[in-house]
Automatic annotation (TrEMBL):
<dbReference type="GO" id="GO:0016301">
    <property type="term" value="F:kinase activity"/>
</dbReference>
<comment type="pathway">
    <text>Amino-sugar metabolism; 1,6-anhydro-N-acetylmuramate degradation.</text>
</comment>
<dbReference type="GO" id="GO:0097175">
    <property type="term" value="P:1,6-anhydro-N-acetyl-beta-muramic acid catabolic process"/>
</dbReference>
<keyword id="KW-0808">Transferase</keyword>
<keyword id="KW-0119">Carbohydrate metabolism</keyword>
<comment type="pathway">
    <text>Cell wall biogenesis; peptidoglycan recycling.</text>
</comment>
<comment type="function">
    <text>Catalyzes the specific phosphorylation of 1,6-anhydro-N-acetylmuramic acid (anhMurNAc) with the simultaneous cleavage of the 1,6-anhydro ring, generating MurNAc-6-P. Is required for the utilization of anhMurNAc either imported from the medium or derived from its own cell wall murein, and thus plays a role in cell wall recycling.</text>
</comment>
<comment type="similarity">
    <text>Belongs to the anhydro-N-acetylmuramic acid kinase family.</text>
</comment>
<keyword id="KW-0067">ATP-binding</keyword>
<dbReference type="GO" id="GO:0009254">
    <property type="term" value="P:peptidoglycan turnover"/>
</dbReference>
<dbReference type="Pfam" id="PF03702">
    <property type="entry name" value="AnmK"/>
</dbReference>
<protein>
    <recommendedName>
        <fullName>Anhydro-N-acetylmuramic acid kinase</fullName>
        <ecNumber>2.7.1.170</ecNumber>
    </recommendedName>
</protein>
<keyword id="KW-0547">Nucleotide-binding</keyword>
<dbReference type="GO" id="GO:0005524">
    <property type="term" value="F:ATP binding"/>
</dbReference>
<dbReference type="GO" id="GO:0006040">
    <property type="term" value="P:amino sugar metabolic process"/>
</dbReference>
<dbReference type="InterPro" id="IPR005338">
    <property type="entry name" value="Anhydro_N_Ac-Mur_kinase"/>
</dbReference>
<dbReference type="GO" id="GO:0016773">
    <property type="term" value="F:phosphotransferase activity, alcohol group as acceptor"/>
</dbReference>
Length: 404
């Protein structure tokens, strides 16, 4: 047996494992790095977040990724080069984080890397007959493994698609393992570039649990800010959007996408909800002359409407519903306020708070998820979730890269 296979077997048999989870989202603000101590697997999983940090990306990273991100046509050479470059860049940030956490690389059992999504294309979106769902994350795990000298699991979404899923969202796995409750109806809401949720009713089995994208979170707002304010990556403290007024015609036009008519679970991305989508909606609503403040106010309300409408649809039959929120959207006070107003008007039995109430840093949640997915791949005796579950195939996720 090769020594690296022996090491992998040894790690899988340990009582506890130190796993670093990595998440790089569509906002391109930085790499989320969560150091997790995990024991057990499946519904017996126990996960403690030992430390967490986000290391901001340099401007070169943002510009290189933006050159190919969510574009149906681009340079194959750029994709090829960036696949290696991002892997090496992420490895450098992992090494920095391990040092900052006060650990040695030899202390870490596994790195779990999401990679950088550059294109997401479910069949409902691409509409090419006889072609499957597809997604692409770059930042090759071999480079991370070699440069950190740590076994790395990466490219988690491909197996999900191969087994019949859509590659996103994957949050159901971690949400079910960590947050399913027999006593409380829960919706786990994550507001990143795209907003997604996991439906966790207290009664019933795993067959009733699912995750779904529900529409744009921060993605169009961030893109608009970056295209109109050269020194701003996002609307800090909702300063711009709070100074504007919602244009109802534009709001309704934005909310008319066929995506919102699809049943759960479903998936989407910035390939659909982007500045071109906004511009087309402005033309149709005869709202091309709006101030930046009014556009941002309307985009903020659009995200709040997408999120709230989905929660209301799912939550109206659930008494005593609790909504736990994570992701960058929690830092937008106007967005959170508008979600709360919409929910209080139409779903008064629901309460909302962040995952801090469940002892999990809401900024760390997605990075922790990938640590949990890696742990399942290494240690689960059986697959946790039903193989019959639509869009949630019961498979191990992630490719293994060895440092030697």
């Amino acid at each position: 047996m090769h020594p690296h296979i022996e090491k992998l077997h040894y790690i899988s048999k340990q009582h506890t494992r130190l796993i670093i989870g990595l998440m790089s989202g569509t906002s391109l603000d930085g790499l989320d790095i969560a150091l997790c101590k995990i024991n057990g697997s499946g519904t017996n999983t126990q996960c403690d977040v030992i430390d967490f940090k986000t290391i901001d990306y340099c401007e070169d990273y943002r510009q290189h990724v933006k050159a190919i991100f969510a574009k149906p046509i681009g340079s194959i050479e750029q994709v090829c080069i960036l696949n290696a470059w991002i892997g090496r860049y992420h490895a450098k940030l992992v090494n920095q984080a391990i040092h900052d956490f006060g650990y040695q690389n030899t202390d870490i059992d596994v790195v779990a890397s999401h990679g950088q999504t550059i294109y997401h294309s479910p069949s409902e979106q691409h509409q090419y007959a006889n072609f499957p769902n597809a997604t692409l994350q770059i930042g090759d795990g071999d480079h991370i493994a070699v440069l950190t000298n740590i076994i790395t699991l990466s490219d988690f979404r491909q197996k999900h698609i191969a087994a019949g899923g859509q590659g996103a969202p994957l949050v159901m796995y971690g949400d079910y393992l960590m947050f399913h409750s027999q006593d409380e109806n829960r919706i786990m809401l994550n507001i990143g570039g795209i907003a997604n949720l996991t439906y966790l009713p207290s009664k019933g089995g795993v067959s009733e649990v699912f995750s779904s994208d529900i529409g744009p979170g921060n993605t169009i707002m961030d893109a608009f800010m970056q295209s109109h304010y050269s020194d701003l990556h996002y609307d800090t403290d909702a300063t711009i959007s709070s100074a504007g007024s919602v244009h109802q015609g534009l709001l309704m036009q934005l909310a008319s996408s066929i995506f919102f008519m699809q049943s759960f679970p479903k998936t989407t991305g910035p390939e659909v909800f982007n500045l071109a989508y906004l511009l087309e909606a402005q033309k149709l609503a005869e709202a091309t002359d709006l101030s930046n403040e009014d556009v941002m106010a309307t985009l903020c309300d659009f995200s709040a409407k997408c999120i709230s409408d989905s929660i209301i649809t799912l939550g109206k039959t659930l008494p005593h519903l609790m909504i736990y929120v994570s992701g960058g959207g929690i830092h937008n006070p106007l967005l959170m306020k508008r979600i709360q107003i919409r929910l209080s008007n139409q779903l008064p039995q629901a309460k909302i708070g962040t995952t801090e109430l469940l002892s999990l840093n809401p900024d760390a949640k997605e990075a922790v998820l990938f640590a949990l997915l890696a742990n399942e791949t290494l240690c689960a005796n059986t697959q946790t979730l039903s193989s019959q579950e639509t869009n949630m195939p019961s498979v191990s996720l992630g490719k293994v890269s060895f440092p030697d």
